[in-house]
Amino acid sequence: MAQILGIIDIVWRGVAYDVIPKSGKLQLSGMKNNPVVAGRNVHRSQEFTQGKVTISTVLKRGQRHSELYDENEGELQVRCDTGHVYICPDAFLESGPPEISDDGGKLELVWTISKYEEIMP
């Protein structure tokens, strides 16, 4: 029986974040085909689309909000329990300063990624 993805861990600028289970999402960047209708035919044009990494984490007692949010670019590592690792050297937080809920201090962080390196187990 093969193992499938169950857990995503995040390391942002060298700091590991606690990820709330089942909140992690990874959409890789790459080429996308767009349909273009001309007359009675459909053609395609291509464009590069950015990737996106989304997680939910928590704000812990004694932790500063500014420790979680930084508007500058940096290295983001997405580590999967399957052994796959995606290293994104120029990621940035797109979500803006996070909104914090009273449901355990949960907050969502969203990074945009451009290029990435995939490391296989």
TrEMBL record:
Family annotation (Pfam families): Tail_tube
Source taxon at top rank: Bacteria
Protein name per Swiss-Prot or TrEMBL: Uncharacterized protein
Species of the source: Segnochrobactrum spirostomi
Source species taxonomy: Bacteria, Pseudomonadati, Pseudomonadota, Alphaproteobacteria, Hyphomicrobiales
